[in-house]
Amino acid sequence: MNTPIFDFVNKYKSSGTKRLHMPGHKGVSLLGCEEYDITEINGADSLYEAQGIIKESEENASSLFGCPTFYSTEGSSQCIRAMLFLASQKGVKKVLAGRNAHKTFITACSLLDLEVSWIYGNSSYLSCNIDKNSLEQAIKEEKPDAVYITSPDYLGNISDIKAISEVCKNYNILFLVDNAHGAYLKFLESSMHPIDLGADMCCDSAHKTLPCLTGGAYLHIKDEDIAKGAKNALSVFGSTSPSYLILQSLDLINRFICEDFKTNLEAFILKVENFKKTLRGAGYSLYGDEPMKLTICAKAYGYTGYEFAKILRENKIECEFSDPDFAVFMLSINTDLDFLKNALLNIPQKEPLPVFPPRLSKPERILSIRDAVMCDYEEIPIEKAEGRILAGLSVGCPPAVPIAVCGEKIDNNITKCFKYYGINKCTVIKRGCLK
After folding, report:
1. pLDDT band at 360 (very low <50, low <70, confident <90, very high)
2. Which of 236, 253, 251, 217 is nearest to 45 (CA)?
3. Least buried of 145, 200, 214, 265, by fewest C-beta within 10 Å?
4. pTM above 0.90?
5. Cβ of 61: how many Cβ atoms within 10 Å?
């Protein structure tokens, strides 16, 4: 497959042209990559008005994913905002969402003034198992205009996208999926990509599971009519200076996918399956069913997730994420499984830790997300937060999944959850701001 963006920049780099345009490095190498870093010069096209090489490259990506596909150089966050913007243009005012939504979803709803009703999971706050019957019941009760879920989630659980899409179609509502962790799902032997399974729109982070530079992502849209507004929606939330380094990376990914990626992926997933069997045989308890993610239930092996991460860090391995309960590893076909296996098998098993996370409550909503975000706020210790109204999202990234949402009343259970996950301060609405 051709690579029009990369080819243009490579030719420009070699042309000897004096760069009297942005960026300020003028192609002179101080960092090692400047020669390939350009802006919207003649012939380079423009991301949000693409008619040339970027359009051609996006059409290449569209052919690979089987639907209209658009580039983001600002990660899936930009795509999530664009999805919700497009949904709002189609009359969506209320969204029924899995509670384990990324904070970008919440801030986007505040910007677009969308009402949100939540579907709660039954385990970690990072997971939200949504079955067909509970979803249908929630739709009847809440009467949303759209359903939004995160799949795969941060711990490696994949939802039944096909079943959820069928329910959404029955009620004639849009179905949106945060598939940031699952770009590779399209290229399994049988595609598990949300668009193929019935989603109306989804985002993929090419930089999470494909070898793209950080920030490279896709917005996929099934309906051609909705897709006509994609560029405008992305431009509303995107910088007018998109990274051409990231665009070249997205461009080159198209060729990478065409060059035996599917065959190599299938072979690697078989290795991962055998790897997981070996770990289970050695006493490890694993969580989730995503093919390319390894999530260890650390306490069952006698450690906290933090302790696991520390031990592995000392062995030159950095995991994706850890908390008191889990250690999460994001795999790709470039992962050295043997090195990881040896490190894990050398960690001695201990007695399980009988400490469990506090169960999440369903907090009382006092204000809309938008009203809470727009209020004046103050930062206070968690010990003084009970009874106050949350203003800002108190969450780190990763995993960027809030325990409580802006506008909710902080109860005793929430303060316990904050403490358990190491959150010691939060922002609350200042007293006297509410009349």
Report:
1. confident
2. 251
3. 214
4. yes
5. 22
